[in-house]
Amino acid sequence: MMGTTPRLESARWYVVLVLGLVYALNIADRYVVSTVLEPIRKEFGLSDSGVAWLTGVSLAFFYIFVGLPIARLADHANRRNIVAAAIMLWSAATAVLGLTQNYWQFLLARIAVGVGEAGGTPPSTSIVADTFPRQRRAFALTVYALGLPLGAWLGSSVAGAIVEHFHSWRAAFIALGVPGVVFGLIILLTVREPVRGRFERISEAKVPSATFRETCKFLWSQRSAWHINAAGTVICLWGWGLLFWTQTYFERAYGLSTAEAGARLGTIYFWAGTVATIATGAILALPQMQDPKRIAQGLAAIVALSTIPSFIIYWTHSLSLATAMLWIVVPAIYLYVGPTMALLLNFMPANMRAQGMAISLLTANVANLIIAPTVVGWLSDTLAGRLGSNAESLRYALLALSLTGFWAAYHYWTSVRTFAADDARIQGAGAA
């Protein structure tokens, strides 16, 4: 490991801090949609599946289409510039959402948000991977992942308070969108592009960027990485799919206002998510946790155990019990992010990392922005007539989704079987 000076160490953590704030704004601009989902649905006269298409699927399709080309570019171009341009685009588009007056205007602005967000996480995590040596990446990416609970709080509690103050869901989009444009300029002026592959074998840093086909082929050959990616994808289906609808469910089932539900959920997202992420970082910093097998097995156990309370949230008719169960489930949904990113990146060569992360985000976004919203919305619409209540129909749809947590745990547990062979292959890729 290279020696570091205090100045270099401070510069490293500044990069993590800034990119973590980028991640927070990314998450906030997503969460605000869930916070105002019910007011949007009512104003535009949409069904549950219709509002899911407008707010989730429209973003995901274009995120997918442009995400891979942007990641391909990030594997050989200046990643700092890509991140800055991306945050300015999606933030400006988020602000425009607050100015829309009909379905089609909202749809076009939401598509622009997806195009911008596609350039956020893959180059950001690639920058972090080239800022810290291999054995410190899990901890660094866990700190980076603190942007997740911060963004969730901004998009829930803060957005809900803005809606209540201005009596308009549009105000929340404008308030959360404008600061990101300014932040993009700060990134251009204060963050430096690191040397690609600086902590890998010297020859690996000189390898030209890989094609998408080569990246997919290598990812498929790395069975550990394949299962890790599958686990992260199913967690997004399970956890983020549930949270996408929870605000709306609480409003319908318990008669809460947008501000009341946003404040309740935002508090849980922020405190439970932050404490869980910090605790995860502290645990990963321990010498005995340098073994990636222990990390994967720990994630498997946590997700499996958290699946049970996730079912109880929608099974009970008690707001107090549902809230208590959320305090247990939300940490599991948040703490997986940093360790999973680090495990995946450690099994990918330096010249494939941005594309590898883009593939991971592609499958995750298909799960939590296309499958979860549309399937839950469709089930809710289908059951509403039979149950006579769109609150009850949504409850049964979410109960079915909650059980997929066991599926994610299976992939984490299975991934460890080939860790040794896949680690040898990644070292060989660096020496080739």
Automatic annotation (TrEMBL):
Signal peptide: none annotated. The keyword Disulfide bond does not apply. The chain crosses the membrane at residues 12-31, 51-70, 82-101, 107-129, 141-163, 169-191, 226-248, 268-286, 298-315, 321-345, 357-376, 396-413. One of its GO terms (molecular function) is transmembrane transporter activity. Pfam families: MFS_1. InterPro entries: MFS, MFS_dom, MFS_spinster-like, MFS_trans_sf. Residues 15-417 form the Major facilitator superfamily (MFS) profile domain. It is found in: Membrane. The keyword Membrane applies. GO terms for cellular component: membrane. Keywords: Membrane, Transmembrane, Transmembrane helix, Transport. PROSITE patterns: MFS. It is a multi-pass membrane protein. This is MFS transporter.
